[in-house]
Amino acid sequence: MTDENFIKKVREQDKKTVSRAITLIESSNGSANQLLKSLHKFTGNAYRIGITGPPGAGKSTLTNQLTRYYRRLNKTVGIIAVDPTSPFSGGALLGDRIRMSDIGSDPGVFIRSMATRGSLGGLSKKAVEAADLLDAAQYDIIIFETVGVGQSELDIAKAADTTVVVLVPESGDSIQAMKAGLMEIADIFVINKSDRQGVDATYTALTTILHLYNRKEVVPEVIKTVASENKGIEELAVEIEKHRKSLIESNLLESNRMNKLKERILENLNYLINEEISGIIETSLIHELAELTLEGKLSYVEASELLLNKYKQKLLGK
Amino acid sequence: MTDENFIKKVREQDKKTVSRAITLIESSNGSANQLLKSLHKFTGNAYRIGITGPPGAGKSTLTNQLTRYYRRLNKTVGIIAVDPTSPFSGGALLGDRIRMSDIGSDPGVFIRSMATRGSLGGLSKKAVEAADLLDAAQYDIIIFETVGVGQSELDIAKAADTTVVVLVPESGDSIQAMKAGLMEIADIFVINKSDRQGVDATYTALTTILHLYNRKEVVPEVIKTVASENKGIEELAVEIEKHRKSLIESNLLESNRMNKLKERILENLNYLINEEISGIIETSLIHELAELTLEGKLSYVEASELLLNKYKQKLLGK
């Protein structure tokens, strides 16, 4: 799978090969690591956009329209949907899925949905690896579409160079609460479905809070869109481009990527150690310690300390 | 902090001491571990209920009413709110916070909000440790209130013996999408705000999907409530009690707790190793490797493999 011909086909955006390569990444075995190592030198050229927000905000429609916009500029687009409510990942109703199929059949667009079933922690690692692969496959733009409420989804959105947080007019009430999470990651806000009631109040609430609490160098812009009618999409794309340019001019693009890379390296270290541990430590020992803990003879902290010592002893060959 | 008098006061539900002890857990230093070790033998008696669902579903009001119900039965209640939109954790508007204050001043109720700011992964560990503490402090019922969308919040909800997923009549559209996440963790569903339009459609959609896709031994019950008017609360409490009894009769209470404990021990092992690594590996080395990776000379996988070797060498005293 890591032979030259396979890599050549990935680089040529051969959809079947790209798709097989991502499946390999999802299975996360040794050959996936080999592949990522071989492709690494080809990465770093794509621009990564994260689109996140609550369920029902219209993230997929927005992704769809934004993709069409980039296609008109002749840019190729790779989409990674890790959103259980996204029609890309098969979560939504049939109607939505059909609506999406036009970009899906475009040879310059690659769509991959990644399941949230199972460990989401692992998923964020794999989603970013899939983006690396699409990057090496020379897609110009990579879009992560995630439901932005949990930490793992935020992790994926944060892996982007520009993160767009999508809200709806009805989000007004929860904007106050949102301060804690979404605000820190948003470079641009979108109020989608802006033909609905409440848009002005939400816009005012959002801009006010942004001006009061913003901790970034630049206050994030707020764009109104009606994605289903293609309204505001160009404005959004222009704002993304403005953000990209400002990152480059301030040298933040590189330093942000550097910081994200450090986090990724440490996370992967963590992952490697976990793999080692599950190879080294017998499940019967874990069971035994858990039993002692349930019986009140050990605390769970002591149980894990015992396992750590076991791991070290094995490493030392004892 | 781990002296006998301190532990005695925790056991006596002295609110100030319990509060200080949780602050200690939040700071997660060595003395917190010491405290948890000393208190461990007193845990396992409280019944743990998780209340989760999307923002705005009325989880806090429901928690509030359920707490009042248990208080009328003379049971003491500890509440851990890890919900940025919860009035308990200060996310919501002032009105809500005042509405909650009556249970807050009850000597038989302990409310603690835990911030989602910072690492949510760490938070789920601390929330469960706080529950252990409240358990040792002899609270009869412990309620976790979390926003159930992200994985980490789900982790907290899963730490409960009975998990209640709260929806609203408007959730109808997203029930299809919900299959992926919330359904697997719910023991009981609540449709709150059931005086609103759409409740029948949502009830039908939910029960249909539950009967089609349920993989548990028993199909979860769906209860309609209007928490703000105290409607349906007793039914919910009865259903929770029924679930508790069925867990005990089928020996699942113990085996579920055992499985959760194993996960916790392994997670903590992970945490201990991370702490060790950050103590052992110089940040300058991480920086150097990240630079080589950005330059395309290493893949991030190779960078983390080099760190793993470094960690092992240090352990071996090289």
UniProtKB/TrEMBL annotation, chains A, B:
<dbReference type="GO" id="GO:0005525">
    <property type="term" value="F:GTP binding"/>
</dbReference>
<dbReference type="InterPro" id="IPR052040">
    <property type="entry name" value="GTPase/Isobutyryl-CoA_mutase"/>
</dbReference>
<feature type="domain" description="AAA+ ATPase">
    <location>
        <begin position="45"/>
        <end position="189"/>
    </location>
</feature>
<keyword id="KW-0547">Nucleotide-binding</keyword>
<dbReference type="InterPro" id="IPR005129">
    <property type="entry name" value="GTPase_ArgK"/>
</dbReference>
<dbReference type="GO" id="GO:0003924">
    <property type="term" value="F:GTPase activity"/>
</dbReference>
<dbReference type="InterPro" id="IPR027417">
    <property type="entry name" value="P-loop_NTPase"/>
</dbReference>
<protein>
    <submittedName>
        <fullName>Putative ArgK-like periplasmic protein kinase</fullName>
    </submittedName>
</protein>
<keyword id="KW-0808">Transferase</keyword>
<keyword id="KW-0418">Kinase</keyword>
<keyword id="KW-0342">GTP-binding</keyword>
<keyword id="KW-0143">Chaperone</keyword>
<keyword id="KW-0378">Hydrolase</keyword>
<dbReference type="Pfam" id="PF03308">
    <property type="entry name" value="MeaB"/>
</dbReference>
<comment type="similarity">
    <text>Belongs to the SIMIBI class G3E GTPase family. ArgK/MeaB subfamily.</text>
</comment>
<dbReference type="InterPro" id="IPR003593">
    <property type="entry name" value="AAA+_ATPase"/>
</dbReference>
<dbReference type="GO" id="GO:0016301">
    <property type="term" value="F:kinase activity"/>
</dbReference>
